[in-house]
Amino acid sequence: MVRLLAFVLFADPRLAFGKGLSTEGEPDLWLHDPTGVIELWIDVGLPDERELRKACGRARQVVVLAYGAARRSSGGRRTQERWRGCRACACWRCPTKTASGCSASQRARCR
Predict the structure, then answer these.
(1) Residue 106, Cβ neighbours under 10 Å: how many?
(2) What distance in Å separates the CA atoms of residue 93 and residue 45, rounded to the nearest whole number?
């Protein structure tokens, strides 16, 4: 559901879904320029720090739509602090209710 929300939030004719949830080294959604350069890399959930740093090196902009119980833990806060070190990375938090089933009123709160 959050992948679909990301697709709507970042709507662009060039925005495409990645190959799949279990494909390493590829985002959930991405946008390439006409030369093949990755302009936007979008991951949903809680990507690990190593994958996030790789994404920051490959794309002009990286967006993480974080959701789930792990982001509330102290470990989740430490990881979010490390994400701030990525120059072109933005982390949005999605409430658990939003992630599990978005109603129209909840979509606006996903930030």
Answers:
(1) 16
(2) 9
Range from 31-40, 47-56, 58-67 carrying the lowest mean pLDDT:
47-56
This prediction has a pTM of: 0.73
Are 24 and 45 in contact by the 8 Å Cβ rule? The answer is: no
Considering only residues 43 and 107, tell me which one the structure prediction assigns the higher pLDDT: 43
Which tokens belong to 104?
A: 């129209």
Supply the range of the domain harboring residue 85. Answer: 2-107
Q: How many domains does the chain have?
A: 1
DSSP for 16-32, please give it. EE-S-TT-TT--SEEEE
The band of 96, judged by pLDDT with boundaries at 50, 70 and 90, is: low
CATH number, domain containing residue 97 = 3.10.640.10
Give, rounded to a whole angstrom, the gap between the first and last alpha carbons of the chain. Answer: 15
| 99 C-beta neighbours (distance < 10 Å), count | 20
- Cα separation, 47 vs 59, whole angstroms: 15
pLDDT tens digits, one per residue of 55-71? 999 999 999 988 875 54
